[in-house]
């Protein structure tokens, strides 16, 4: 109900935007006192992740039902990846 209300009202609640950011050392061999040795890990709220997934699924259904994605689109498409894109290019060249 929260997800549908957010989508129908076209409002993304501001508290969904907050993330808990944790600095994580990239490699144990890097100096711990250098901030460039860390990468930020953002933990989003559960409901924010669910909303993102629902929007993604609905958008993909819309794109597929209305034939709005191109044949050569590989990203964000079910059963398509960089590997399938490479196979298409390889097959075309041969």
Task: Summarize the topology.
Blueprint: H1 2-9, E1 19-25, E2 38-44, H2 46-65, H3 82-93
The total of beta strands comes to: 2
Q: Largest sheet, described in full? A: 2 strands, antiparallel
Total helical elements: 3
Number of domains: 1
Quick one: overall form?
Answer: flat
Distance between the termini: 52 Å
General description of the model:
This protein has 94 residues and is α+β, with helices and mostly antiparallel strands. The protein has one domain (2-69). It is built from three helices and two strands; from the N terminus they run αββαα. It has helices at residues 2-9, 46-65, 82-93, and strands spanning 19-25, 38-44. A two-stranded antiparallel ribbon has the order 1-2. The longest helix is centred in the middle third of the chain and has 20 residues, at 46-65. It is flat.
Please sum up the structure shown.
With 94 residues, the protein is an alpha+beta fold. Helix content is 43%, strand content 15%. The chain has one domain (2-69).
């Amino acid at each position: 109900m929260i997800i549908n209300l957010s989508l129908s009202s076209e409002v993304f609640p501001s508290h969904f935007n907050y993330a808990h950011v944790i600095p994580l050392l990239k490699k144990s061999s890097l100096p711990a006192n250098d901030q460039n040795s860390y990468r930020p890990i953002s933990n989003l709220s559960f409901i924010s992740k669910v909303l993102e997934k629902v929007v993604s699924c609905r958008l993909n259904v819309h794109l597929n039902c209305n034939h709005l994605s191109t044949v050569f689109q590989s990203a964000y498409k079910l059963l398509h990846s960089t590997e399938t894109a490479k196979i298409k290019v390889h097959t075309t060249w041969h």
